[in-house]
Amino acid sequence: MTETKKYVRILKAKYASSWYADKIGEVFEVEREANLYTVRRGDESLTAIRKEDAELIVTEKRPAKVGERVLITDKYGTSGEYKDGDILTADLCIGHAITAKEVDLTIIFHSEYEVIVNNEEADEMENVEQRYDTAVENAREAIEELRLAAYAKGFEDARRELTATAPVEKTAQERRDEIVEQAKADINELKNRNFYEVPDADNFYNPYICTAEFIVNNQKRTVVALLRGANTSKVYARGIAKAAPDDCFNEHIGKAIALHRALGLEVPDEYLNAPQPTEVRVGDAVKLIHNGEVIDEYLVVKIEDDRVYDHNNTWAPKRTLKIIDDSRTEVGEWL
User: Which residues form a coiled coil (predicted)?
Assistant: First the structure.
């Protein structure tokens, strides 16, 4: 039986801060597949791609038949008619090469491509093509209806409705909130069937099946991830995250960083360079600063207008506070 390989093409990035947000359309070979696709970047580091952000392409290494789609994986030469990652259709097979209908009079050697046997996006194309004529006709009718409605409603009103409002750039707090939610999701999405897989250096295809133990120290601003064998409790891998002295500590981001390191995955840049929080919220740990000196540290239990209260009902104005921990999980260490 011919061996198959898996690739993914980036379709989108759920988070603008994802490492592949600027790599839409690029193709990467899949190393492992669980709740996420694990791939290698150009520098050979392992990293993850969310399944909903990519299309899966399954290939076989063999000569293509007429009509089969092929994925270019090892382009020969410097001609610009096609490139690695392109999907082409074989229309002529000649000895050790093929030609493709998408590029005119170009010979593509068998060594340059792999035959696609399953492609999520391409499998949908037939239905798309069948619906094309109907969609075009419907579009014509919709445009005409819209034109008539625009005249009826008045040009200026229609112009305001049809002109898209320029997107508003997210604030630093909104970006941080998004990154925290992404970090929380990663803790589960890096699992494969409820467990984490730690590669065995002697047997890559038979990884250790592990559970994760997280040791969080809010005072030292560290998170340690220990990956223990599900049946043995032996620690097979560990990862450590520590917040920089001037950064706000967040347990969820710390867990995601430590877990990536324990799994041998590259840590997403958005975790390492998350913007600092700007909005004080209930559950945050804050420093009270006066004339450049730290007067107190406490947990926020209530906010009324500009007043931020601690558990003793003592308050300070927001402008005098610096957020040092926005995990908002356990409060005991700050009371």
Answer: 118-149
Q: CA 332 to CA 311: how far, in whole Å?
A: 12
**Distance between first and last Cα of the chain:** 64
pLDDT of residue 112: 95
With beta carbons less than 8 A apart as the criterion, state whether 118 and 58 touch: yes
CA 213 – CA 228 distance, rounded (Å): 8
Give the DSSP H/E element, type plus range, for residue 239.
strand 235-242
CA of residue 105 relative to chain centroid, distance? 39
Q: Which residues pair with 195 in a beta bridge?
A: 192
DSSP, residue by residue, 14-73 = SSTTSTTTT-TT-EEEEEEESSEEEEE-TTS-EEEEEGGGEEEEEEE-SPPPTT-EEEE-
Please provide residue 185's backbone torsions phi and psi, each rounded to the nearest 5 degrees.
Answer: -65, -35
Burial group, residue 165, by CB count within 10 angstroms (0-12, 13-18, 19+): exposed
pLDDT of amino acid 306: 93
Low-confidence residues of the chain, pLDDT below 50?
126, 332, 335
Token readout for 149 is 């409605």
Q: Give the CA distances from residue 185 to residues 178, 265, 327, in Å, rounded to whole numbers and listed in that order.
A: 11, 16, 15
Q: What is the pLDDT of residues 86-144, one digit of tens each?
A: 999 999 998 899 999 999 878 999 999 999 998 755 555 545 555 555 666 666 777 77
Helical segments of 76-192, H only = 120-123, 125-153, 155-162, 172-189
242: three-class secondary structure by DSSP = strand
**Closest Cα to residue 250, out of 175, 184, 334, 333?**
184
Tokens of 271: 């975790």
